[in-house]
């Protein structure tokens, strides 16, 4: 499949609940290459992405933007082809009529690790500025753990039951990303 004469329209695909009745992300896309569209609770398009493992990407987006991940539409392809994936993504964006915020102004919130530094208290920021490398790492880990607790509580309130594990090494930099 080198060209995509039959790109499915976004409107023609069914909405899939982001989290199933068991609090799990659907595993039907595990290891699958494809394009996905993420919608909020009101089914407003928030982000369109593509991945070599749609499941892992969806899990990452759920952790980074839980308040915007309620529905999705997915088109998988058999053979990895960035060109095909980009053609589908671009066609869906054109069909939508406007660029979703997750593909423009908020792109870093969807695609980059969560930065816990803004969650540091004034006292932590002062200690960080005055501290040595070890103190700074300790403060960053402390802020990252606090943000992690808040995030896990928000996901639990949504009914998410799947295990979420963050990369412990990144916490030393004040970042949260799945392991």
Notable features of this structure?
4-stranded antiparallel sheet; alpha+beta; 39% helix; two-stranded antiparallel ribbon; GIY-YIG endonuclease; 2 domains; 179 residues
Q: Could you explain how this protein is built, in words?
A:
It is a single chain. The strands form two sheets. This protein has a four-stranded antiparallel sheet, sandwiched between helices. A two-stranded antiparallel sheet has the order 5-6. The protein contains six helices and six strands, in the order E-E-E-H-E-H-H-E-H-H-H-E. Helix 4 packs antiparallel against helix 5. The protein starts with 15 loop residues before the first strand and ends with a strand. With 179 residues, it is α+β, with helices and mostly antiparallel strands.
């Amino acid at each position: 499949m080198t060209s995509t004469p039959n790109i499915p329209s976004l409107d023609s695909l069914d909405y899939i609940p982001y989290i199933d009745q068991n609090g799990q992300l659907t595993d039907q896309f595990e290891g699958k290459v494809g394009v996905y569209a993420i919608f909020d609770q009101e089914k407003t398009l928030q982000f369109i992405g593509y991945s070599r493992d749609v499941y892992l990407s969806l899990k990452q987006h759920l952790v980074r933007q839980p308040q915007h991940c309620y529905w999705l539409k997915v088109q998988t392809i058999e053979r990895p082809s960035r060109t095909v994936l980009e053609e589908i993504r671009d066609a869906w964006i054109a069909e939508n009529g406007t660029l979703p915020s997750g593909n423009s102004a908020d792109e870093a919130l969807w695609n980059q690790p969560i930065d816990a530094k803004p969650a540091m208290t004034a006292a932590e920021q002062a200690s960080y500025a005055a501290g040595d490398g070890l103190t700074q790492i300790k403060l960053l880990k402390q802020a990252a753990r606090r943000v992690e607790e808040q995030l896990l509580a928000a996901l639990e309130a949504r009914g998410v039951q799947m295990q979420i594990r963050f990369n412990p090494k990144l916490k030393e930099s004040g970042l949260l990303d799945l392991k």
